[in-house]
Amino acid sequence: MSTALASQKAIAAPTPNLADPNWVRYTLVGATLAIIGLFLILPLATVLISAFAKGWTAYSSSLSHPDTLAAIRLTLLTALITVPLTTVFGVSAAWAIARFQFRGKSLLVTLIDLPFSVSPVIAGLIYVLIFGAQGWFGPWLSDHGIKIVFAVPGIILATLFVTFPFVARELIPLMQEIGHEEEEAALSLGASGLQTFFRITLPNIKWGLLYGVLLCNARAMGEFGAVSVVSGHIRGLTNTLPLHVEVSYNEYDFVGSFASASLLAALAIVTLVLKALLEWQQPGKH
Predict the structure, then answer these.
(1) What pLDDT is attached to residue 134?
(2) How far apart are CA 130 and CA 121, in angstroms?
(3) pTM of the predicted model, to two decimals?
C-alpha cells in the first residue's frame, strides 16, 4: 500500500521546469535569423537590386534579349523532358523496392543515391568521355550524324543524371510506411494492376509524388555543373538559364546577368512556398 501511495505522489508531483533560460532561446533565435538574413535574404535582395539598377526598361530589355529567351526556352524544354522521365523512373523504382524482394535490391538503392555522392561536374565529364568526339562512341556517332555532347541531348542526359533520385527517394520510404494491405485487398477483389495503382496506390502517395516532382523540377531548371560541362556554352543554342547568368556576368553585362538570376530566384521562392505547402499536406510532416 505504501509503495502504491508513493507512486501516486510521484506521478502527481509537479515536474521540474526544464525550459531553457530566456537568454538561450533569444540567442539561438537571433543567431538563426542572422544566418538566414546573411545567407538567404541579403543575396536575394542583392540580386533584385542589381537587376533593377538601371530601371525597368533595362530589366525588361535584358529579359527580352534573344539569347535570354533562347536560354529560357532551353531550360523549360529540359525540365519538360527530364521531369516526366524522372517521375516514371521514380514511381517504378519505388514500387519495385517497396513491394518486392529480389537479389540486388540494396545495390539498386545504392545506385539511386549515386548522384547525391558524385559531383555533377564529374557526371558531365563522364558523358563527354563517353559521347564526345574522342569518347568511346564519339566516332560512331559522328559517322551517323548524331550529336550528343555540346548539344541539347547531352544537356538532357546530364540533367537526368542529377535529378533521377528525387522522386524515388521521396516515394520509397513513403510506400514502405503505407504498406501493401490495401493493394492486396483490391487485387483479391478482382482489381487489375492498373486499377489498383490508380485507385489505391496513387491517392496514397500523391502528396509525396508532387513533393518529389517539385524538387526534381527545381533541380532541373537550376542545374549548373553537369550541364556546364556538356553544353559547350554555345550562345543561343546550348546555354540554359544558369549558364546564361554566368556568361552575361563574365561579359560585364551585370543587369542582364542579375535579371536572368532574378528568374531563378523567383523559381526558388515559389519552390520553397510550394514545398512548405506539400510538406503540410503530408501526414507526419507538420
Answers:
(1) 84
(2) 14
(3) 0.82
Query: Would you state the pLDDT for residue 282?
Result: 62
Give the number of other Cβ atoms within 10 Å of residue 90's Cβ. 25
Extract the residue ranges of the chain whose pLDDT is less than 50: 1-3, 5, 7, 9-10
Give the per-residue pLDDT at 24.
80
Q: Which three cell numbers stand for residue 197?
A: 495503382
Rounded to the nearest 5 degrees, what angle is found at the Cα of 91, between the Cα atoms of 89 and 94?
100
- 231 by Cβ neighbours in 10 Å (0-12 / 13-18 / 19+) ranks as buried
| Cβ atoms of 241 and 63 closer than 8 Å | no
Q: What is the sign of the dihedral through the CA atoms of 115, 118, 244 and 141?
A: negative
Residue 93's pLDDT is 92
**How many angstroms separate the CA atoms of 277 and 268, rounded?**
14
Q: Which amino acid is at 212?
A: G
Backbone angles phi, psi at 17, to 5 degrees: -75, 110
Quickly count: other Cβ atoms within 10 Å of residue 156's Cβ.
19
How many C-alpha atoms does 190 have within 13 Å on its Cβ side?
A: 0
Instruction: Give the three cell numbers for residue 50.
Output: 542589381
C-alpha cell at 83: 521531369
The whole-angstrom separation of Cα 62 and Cα 253 is 9
DSSP-based three-state secondary structure for 286: coil
- The answer to whether 193 touches 112, Cβ cutoff 8 Å, is no
